[in-house]
Amino acid sequence: MEDVLAKIAAHKAVEVAEQKQLFSVKDLENTQWFAAKPISIKESLTRVGSSGVIAEFKRQSPSKGIINGQASVVETTSGYVAAGAAALSVLTDTQFFGGNTADLLAARGANQCPILRKDFVLDEFQILQAKSIGADVILLIAAMLTPQQIKDLAAFAASLGLEVLLEVHDLEELQRSIQPHVTLVGVNNRSLRTFQVSVDTSFQLAEHIPAEFVKVSESGLFSDASVIGSLRAAGYRGFLIGETFMKTSNPAQACADFIAQTR
Ligand SMILES: O=P(O)(O)OC[C@@H](O)[C@@H](O)c1c[nH]c2ccccc12
Question: In this structure, which topology does domain 3-262 adopt according to CATH?
Answer without folding.
Answer: TIM Barrel (3.20.20)
